[in-house]
Design goal:
Blueprint: H1 2-42
């Protein structure tokens, strides 16, 4: 029974680490997306279709 608890503890820690990493990556990509969109809006007169 002790082995099961140790296994679950390490799996839980890994899941928390992956979750935090995904949150950080999501926020970073969101900020980059907003900055890119603001740059396009700022230079919209120079864009030709």
């Amino acid at each position: 029974m002790e082995k099961v608890y140790k296994l679950l503890k390490s799996a839980g820690g890994a899941n928390i680490a992956v979750g935090v990493l995904l949150i950080v990556v999501g926020i970073t990509l969101g900020v980059i997306n907003i900055v890119s969109g603001a740059s396009l809006l700022h230079n919209r007169r120079n864009i030709l279709f």
